[in-house]
Amino acid sequence: MTDIKNIPKPIQQPIINHISVKKFGLAFGTTGAIMYLGCTFVMLILGHESSVKFFNTLLHGLDVSAIIRMDISPVEEIFGIVQTFILCWLIGACVAAIYNSTFELKIN
Predict the structure, then answer these.
(1) Residues 16-22: contacts with CB within 8 Å, 24+ apart?
(2) What Cα–Cα distance (Å) separates residue 103 from each residue in 18, 28, 34?
(3) Less crowded by CB within 10 Å, the N or C end of the chain?
(4) pLDDT of residue 103
(5) Rounded to 10 degrees, what is the CA torsion of 70, 74, 76, 80?
(6) Where are the domains of the chain?
(7) pLDDT tens digits along 8-37
(8) Whole-angstrom Cα distance, residue 72 to residue 42?
(9) What's this model's pTM, rounded to 2 decimal places?
């Protein structure tokens, strides 16, 4: 007969749902920069009139004709990509940090 003290117990491992703040920030930042470049290519390929139509439909009928500008310099483009990346990185890092701070460490 087997003694109950000799029965191996299952290994107890913590259930950890953890997101890397830096990696999640990088993913958000890169996604934002890619979307910024996508908007730039749309404007370059379509021209002013078609860009206005495209962004009007994308923004649920908001009229962008008064604010859309086609003469963006390369320096402005670079600053825009960098600023978008930084802003999106901060958003992603905040999401990951808030998520990590609200999960409970559960041990079975």
Answers:
(1) 16/103, 16/105, 17/99, 17/103, 18/100, 18/103, 19/96, 19/99, 19/100, 20/96, 21/93, 21/96, 21/97, 21/100, 22/93
(2) 8, 21, 31
(3) N
(4) 66
(5) 100
(6) 18-107
(7) 666 665 556 788 999 999 999 999 999 999
(8) 14
(9) 0.74
